[in-house]
Every structure is written in structure tokens, then in C-alpha cells.
């Protein structure tokens, strides 16, 4: 639907409807954009989770192979650095995908290795970057006599394994914005990093990844002390795809307009005079006022007539001839009468139970008079409030369309019960 149609709808609507439509469109548009951004965020987090899982699986594979080779090398019974020993070390290295070299250590240096054979002088090693029991770890150190190749090295006792430089190739680092750490669970030692991870490492160590204002996750192995931490910049909705953003804007506006029109229609129905009257009747919110009835000869007060009064939601007094006629058209007249009777008995109960002659007169429709259920309701209400029947008069309008035979029988039944029955607006 073109925007021009919405413009015409807004122009033809009342101010109240315009406010609802505009508010609904803005709120729906905002909710649509927020939901779209949330989906983008979830997608980016899911991508990081996939990357982290693959990297963690590779890290575990590397660690498992390193442990296995170190275990096999330590169990060799050959003379250290002998020709036979070097052949066995080369065999271990050859069959490993993630190991570049296997070496024997003596006096803090490399005495021999599968790649370089026996060295005339042990190749000195720097202090390890991390040590744990009999395990030592080095990152990016020169571990060859020629000093051209750097690698990560793990040592256990007198045996050491150098990881292959490409051990983590092919695990999904196509996005240069993604920063990655492979480190111990306590963050004390970084096994491998990709990109500038200074802030990421600090956030992991202080458990404040959420404060990076980036997409950030930490994925740790269930058993081994190895974690993968990743982060990437947030992707605002407008940076993803302009076409998608435009489509979402239109969707939000159209959906909001539809919701607004539906809500406006509902409120219009809810605030209609009929709907307000129905709520007032259901909630016993009809007010009752009392018009005195006096004897002409001595002005003595002998009773009152109960008159229904009602104001709409805006506080406007609605004339009785309007809302009573409306209740009659909608089929709510008996409910309205019952509400007036309840209010009258509650207000005047003490006086109606007194000895002095005093009665209350209530207007009823002829259809209610001939309704046996209404007569039973009136009898029960009098019994409940302990009000004698002769203290309750019923006025029936002359404009009745009820069958006169039925009406006559109903009058007699009410008189037999003790009620006064009168004709209201006689002669109109």
C-alpha cells in the first residue's frame, strides 16, 4: 500500500485516531528494528560460536597429539640421542599432523631432535613462559640452531615437542575483524592468539567480556584447561544491507498502521456510548437519585421515586431518555432495573424496614413485569434485605407493547405478593 494512502487515512481521521496511528507506527517500527538488530546479533554470536568450536576442537587435537608423542617419546628405551633414538623420534614426528619436531633436553637446552639430529653443543632455551608441575610451555620461540624458525614448544620432563606452524590452518579465520585467544582456563597462559587481543585477554581475565561493547564469547573444554575466546565488532543494522533496512522500515510502518487502525477501532467501540453503558451496568456504576413523593393535603413525605442517572467516561451527564432507550434497544433494560433496585435497597434499606409508612417506587418495563424470573429476583431481593413487599412500588409506563392479558395476570401476581403497581406517564 503506498504511503500516500496512509497520508489520506491520517488526514481523514480524527485527532485521537491520528495520535494512535502515529504512535503505533513509531512503536512498531522501533520494535521491528530492535528485533532485526537482535537477529543480527544472534547471527554474529552464532558465527563466533561455530568458529570457537572449530578452533577449540583443533586445540584439543593439537594437545592430544602433543601429549601422546611426549608419552611415547618418554617411554623409548633407546640410548638418548643415538642414531636409533633419533630414528624413533623422526618416526614419531613423521606420523603427527600437528608436530614439527621432537627433541631431547639436557641442561636447559636442546641436545638433539628429530629434525636436527645430535647437536655438538646443546641449543640453549630461554626461561619457559609458563610452567605447571613438570610441564613447561614456550610461545613463538626460536627452537632451531639456525634461528630462522619460531614455534610453540611444550616440554614434559626431558622431552619436548615443537608444534607445526600451520597447526591451526583452515579453522576459519577469514574475517580479520575476529580476534581470537586460545588460552588456559584461568587465563594465565596464552597458547595461541590471532589479532590484537590485549583488551580481549584483559576482559577474559577480569570476567568482563560484556563490557567490551563487542560481540564476545568464551568457549571452554569440559575436561581440559583450554578455552577459546573470540570477539568481533558489533554490526549496526544500517551497515548490514540498505535494502534490508528499507524493507524493515516499510514493514514496521505498514504493520504499525494496521495495528493502529485495529486499536483505534477497538477503542472507538469500547468508548462508544453503548459500550460505556454496558460496563456501567455490569459494574453497578449507575447512580440513583431519589425524588420525594408527598401527600398533597399535608405535604407529608410518604416515599421516593428511584431515578437512574449516568455520566459517560468524559463526565458528561447523559439524559435518562437517551441511555434508558439505548439500554432497551440493546436488551439491557432488565439488568439496568436490577442495578437500580439493588442500589435503592442498599441506600434506603433501614428506612424501608422502619415502622413509619414509607415506600420506594421504581420504574420497570412491562416486559420485566411479565417475566417470572424478574418477579423471583424481586422477591429474593426483598427477602435478602428484609424489606416488606408493600414498601416497594413498581411503575409501568403506558407505552407498553406487552399483551394486556399477560400484563394483567402479572399485575395481580405482584399485588398478591404485596407490591403496589402503578401506571407511569398516564395519558402521554
Summarize the structure.
By secondary structure, this protein is α+β, with helices and mostly antiparallel strands. It has helices at about 5-10, 15-75, 85-95, 200-205, 235-240, 240-270, 275-280, 320-330, 335-350, 365-370, 370-385, 405-415; strands spanning about 100-105, 110-115, 115-125, 130, 135-140, 150-155, 160-165, 180-185, 190-195, 215-220, 225-230, 285-295, 300-310, 315-320, 360-365, 390-395, 420-425.
Q: List low-pLDDT spans.
A: 8-13, 266-270
Strand content: 15-25%
* Share in helix: 40-55%
Report on the biggest sheet: 7 strands, antiparallel
Q: What order do the strands of the largest sheet run in, or round the barrel if closed?
A: 3-2-1-7-6-5-4
Number of strand elements? 17
Morphology call: rod-shaped
Arithmetic mean pLDDT = 82
Oligomer: single chain
How are helices and strands ordered from N to C? Answer: HHHEEEEEEEEEHEEHHHEEEHHEHHEHE
Based on the model shown, name its key terms:
single chain; alpha+beta; six-stranded mixed sheet
Structure description:
The chain has helices spanning 3-12, 15-74, 83-94, 198-205, 237-240, 242-270, 273-282, 320-330, 333-352, 366-369, 372-385, 404-417, and strands spanning 99-106, 109-113, 117-124, 130-132, 135-142, 150-156, 159-163, 179-183, 190-194, 215-220, 227-232, 287-294, 301-311, 317-318, 359-364, 392-397, 420-424. It is α+β, with helices and mostly antiparallel strands and 428 residues long. The chain is rod-shaped and about 145 Å long. Residues 8-13 and 266-270 have low confidence and may be disordered.
Amino acid at each position: 500500500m503506498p504511503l500516500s494512502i496512509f497520508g489520506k487515512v491520517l488526514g481523514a481521521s480524527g485527532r485521537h485516531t491520528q495520535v494512535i496511528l502515529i504512535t503505533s507506527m513509531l512503536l512498531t517500527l522501533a520494535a521491528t528494528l530492535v528485533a532485526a538488530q537482535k537477529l543480527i546479533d544472534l547471527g554474529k554470536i552464532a558465527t563466533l560460536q561455530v568458529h570457537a568450536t572449530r578452533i577449540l576442537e583443533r586445540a584439543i587435537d593439537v594437545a592430544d597429539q602433543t601429549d601422546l608423542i611426549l608419552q611415547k617419546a618418554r617411554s623409548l628405551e633407546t640410548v638418548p640421542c643415538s642414531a636409533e633414538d633419533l630414528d624413533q623420534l623422526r618416526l614419531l614426528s613423521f606420523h603427527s599432523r600437528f608436530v614439527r619436531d621432537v627433541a631431547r633436553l639436557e641442561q636447559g637446552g636442546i641436545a638433539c631432535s628429530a629434525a636436527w639430529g645430535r647437536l655438538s653443543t646443546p641449543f640453549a632455551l630461554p626461561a619457559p613462559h609458563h610452567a605447571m608441575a613438570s610441564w613447561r610451555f614456550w610461545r613463538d620461540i626460536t627452537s632451531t640452531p639456525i634461528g630462522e624458525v619460531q614455534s610453540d614448544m611444550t616440554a614434559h620432563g626431558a622431552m619436548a615437542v615443537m608444534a607445526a606452524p600451520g597447526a591451526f590452518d583452515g579453522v576459519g579465520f577469514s574475517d580479520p575483524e575476529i580476534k581470537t585467544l586460545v588460552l588456559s582456563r584461568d587465563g594465565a597462559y596464552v597458547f595461541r592468539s590471532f589479532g590484537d587481543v590485549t583488551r580481549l585477554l584483559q576482559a577474559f581475565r577480569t570476567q568482563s567480556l560484556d563490557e567490551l561493547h563487542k560481540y564476545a564469547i568464551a568457549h571452554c573444554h569440559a575436561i581440559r584447561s583450554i578455552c577459546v575466546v573470540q570477539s568481533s565488532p558489533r554490526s549496526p543494522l544500517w551497515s548490514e544491507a540498505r535494502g534490508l533496512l528499507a524493507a524493515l522500515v516499510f514493514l514496521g510502518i505498514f504493520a504499525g498502521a494496521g495495528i493502529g487502525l485495529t486499536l483505534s477501532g477497538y477503542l472507538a467501540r469500547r468508548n462508544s456510548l453503548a459500550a460505556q453503558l454496558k460496563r456501567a451496568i455490569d459494574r453497578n456504576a449507575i447512580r440513583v437519585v431519589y425524588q420525594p413523593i408527598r401527600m398533597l393535603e399535608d405535604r407529608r413525605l410518604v416515599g421516593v421515586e428511584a431515578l437512574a442517572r449516568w455520566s459517560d467516561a468524559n463526565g458528561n451527564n447523559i439524559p435518562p431518555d437517551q441511555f434508558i432507550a439505548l439500554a432497551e434497544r440493546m436488551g439491557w433494560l432488565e439488568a439496568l432495573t436490577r442495578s437500580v433496585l439493588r442500589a435503592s435497597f442498599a441506600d434506603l434499606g433501614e428506612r424501608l424496614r422502619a415502622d413509619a409508612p414509607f415506600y420506594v417506587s421504581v420504574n420497570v418495563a412491562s416486559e420485566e413485569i411479565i417475566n417470572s424470573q424478574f418477579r423471583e429476583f424481586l422477591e429474593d431481593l426483598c427477602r435478602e434485605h428484609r424489606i416488606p413487599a408493600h414498601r416497594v412500588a413498581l411503575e409501568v409506563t403506558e407505552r407498553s407493547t406487552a399483551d394486556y392479558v399477560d400484563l394483567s395476570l402479572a399485575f395481580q401476581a405482584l399485588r398478591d405478593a404485596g407490591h403496589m403497581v402503578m401506571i407511569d406517564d398516564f395519558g402521554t
